[in-house]
C-alpha cells in the first residue's frame, strides 16, 4: 500500500493550491478517502472526506466553502483543491484511508505554508 502526496508549497494568503495523492497497492476505487492535516505543535485534524464513488463529500467547518475534495478512480488519485488559503491552513497535509484488516494507511505528507 502506498499513498504519495504532492502539490504543497509556500503561498501567500488568499492564494490557491491543489494537492494530489497517488494511491497504489490496493483497490483505490473501493475505499473512502480523507485528507488530514497536522499543524506545528498540534494534533492531527481531519479536513475532508469522500466516499468510494466520489458522490458524497464532507468538510471540517474550518475549510468548508474554501476546499474541495475530489477523486479520479481511473487514475487512482485523490485531490484537494484549496482556495482562499489562510495562515492557519499551514500544516502538513496527509491523505489517509482505512484498509481492513490492516487499519489506517497514511502517506508521507506534503507541506503547505501560507505566509506573507
List the helices and strands and how they pair.
Blueprint: E1 2-6, E2 9-11, E3 17-24, E4 33-38, E5 44-50, E6 57-59, E7 67-72, E8 77-82, E9 91-99, E10 103-106, E11 110-114
Parallel strand pairs: 2-11
Antiparallel strand pairs: 1-3, 3-8, 4-5, 4-9, 5-6, 7-8, 9-10, 9-11
In short:
The protein is mainly beta. It has strands spanning 2-6, 9-11, 17-24, 33-38, 44-50, 57-59, 67-72, 77-82, 91-99, 103-106, 110-114.
Task: Describe the protein.
- The protein has no helices and eleven strands.
- It has 116 residues and is mostly beta strands.
- Strand 5 and strand 6 form a beta hairpin.
- The model has no long low-confidence stretch (mean pLDDT 97).
| Shape verdict | globular
Q: What is the average per-residue confidence, as pLDDT, rounded to a whole number?
A: 97
Point out poorly predicted stretches: none
User: Would you tell me the structural class of the helices and strands?
Assistant: mainly beta
Say how many strands there are: 11
Helices, by number, come to: 0
Sketch the major β-sheet. 7 strands, mixed
Helix content: under 10%
Range of strand content: over 45%
For the record, give the distance between the C-alpha atoms at the N and C termini, rounded to a whole number: 37 Å
Order of helices and strands: EEEEEEEEEEE
Amino acid at each position: 500500500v502506498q499513498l504519495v502526496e504532492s502539490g504543497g508549497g509556500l503561498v501567500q494568503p488568499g492564494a490557491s493550491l491543489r494537492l494530489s495523492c497517488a494511491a497504489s497497492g490496493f483497490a483505490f476505487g473501493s475505499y473512502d478517502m480523507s485528507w488530514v492535516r497536522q499543524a506545528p505543535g498540534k494534533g492531527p485534524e481531519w479536513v475532508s472526506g469522500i466516499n468510494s464513488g466520489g458522490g458524497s463529500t464532507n468538510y471540517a467547518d474550518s475549510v468548508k466553502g474554501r476546499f474541495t475534495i475530489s477523486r479520479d478512480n481511473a487514475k487512482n488519485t485523490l485531490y484537494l483543491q484549496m482556495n482562499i488559503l489562510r495562515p492557519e491552513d499551514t500544516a502538513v497535509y496527509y491523505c489517509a484511508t482505512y484498509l481492513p484488516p490492516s487499519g489506517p494507511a497514511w502517506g508521507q505528507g506534503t507541506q503547505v505554508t501560507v505566509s506573507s
